Please model this.
Amino acid sequence: MKAIWNNEIVAESNDTVVIEGNHYFPHDSIKKDYFNTSDTKTVCPWKGTASYYTIVVDGKENKDAAWYYPEVSELAKGIKNRVAFWKGVTIEA
Model:
């Protein structure tokens, strides 16, 4: 699977986990040069507190377009050390 934004592959892996329609990529499969940490946090009642990345490609910024759970609940242990995408990031096989 590939995560693509602004015509660039920002993550690629054959090992994604799909939860609630979102592909969670292994953290080590993201191309870190495109990712900046964000101060944004949100809380999911069953997964825990999510942290976000802003994706930057060719000078264009997609704020908080990727998220991950630094600490996951017992119910969400399948997405530990994984990153998911939204806000126009497309997932392709």
User: Anything to note?
Assistant: The mean pLDDT is 97.
